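Re: your question about Oligopeptide transport system permease protein

S., sorry for the slow reply, the queue was backed up all week. Below is exactly what I fed in.
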Amino acid sequence: MGRYVLGRLVQLVPVLILVSLIVFSVMRLLPGDPALLMLSGAEGGAITPERLNVLREQMGLNEPLTTQYLSFVIGAAQGDLGNSIRFQVPVIDLILDRFGSTLELAVAGLFLAIAIGMPLGMIAAARQGGWIDTLCMTMSYIGSSMPVYWLGLLLVLVFSFTLRWLPSAGGGSFEALILPAFTLGLLSAGVLARLIRSSMIEVGTEDYMRTARAKGLFPRLIILRHGLKNAMIPVLTMMGLQFGALLAGTVVTETVFSRPGLGRLIVDSILSKDYPLVQGSILFLAVVYLLVNLAVDIAYAWLDPRIRYGN
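Result:
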């Protein structure tokens, strides 16, 4: 197991280098000059070419792109993501300050996705071919096909402005978490429901399931004890991928609900051309996403004892 984990960690290195190269290139291809934007906000229209050149020199923007990229990668490898152009503080401090809110939202969204999607998929599999199956799958298709921003605005209109039950924006409280988490989790709930249904139907044809039924065990006991655990292996893979999708989805959700999280910070930093903050934030999320998927791979051995690593 130790050799397997070490090997997987080594494999993460080229992936992170590729991510860093993509985000670095995309930010440089976007139109606009961060030095010019910074001076426009601070000094209004009194911007001289000399002043602009001095600021670009201070920000390292006059260096060749290869030098800028190598400086970013070497710093990131040492845990230094540079200083934010806009806030003039270390990028890692800003990320750690906002990541707690984003992680809270992603975990709450995943919890709701499992709480809604798992029973929906199990009921559909148990009632395969009937009207209950059709109803459950219709609900899953509706949930997974709704755009996040549209669903978020609809929930704000109904539960915040019309019924006045929940706050429409902000963070730091359980009430402020409900609508963003539901918005984020409903999409993944539909995906999980369809996957659990197909996986449960496939497991239901296995010999050990027929043996359990031949022994006269209760159908509910057969599903919970023998069917669900074996059907969870592909579902666990999807959960890992969905957690990454939820982290990415926080960019839109936090903007709609004005939550002070990492996703909203990335949107604001893109608009202000804050290169170090965008690069550092996306690289940080990439590391989290890869580590979550590594944890999912390790969990396979717990679900299926036939799986052994390191041989």
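Residues 219-256 form the longest helix (38 residues). The chain is about 80% helix and 0% strand.

Happy to talk it through on Thursday.
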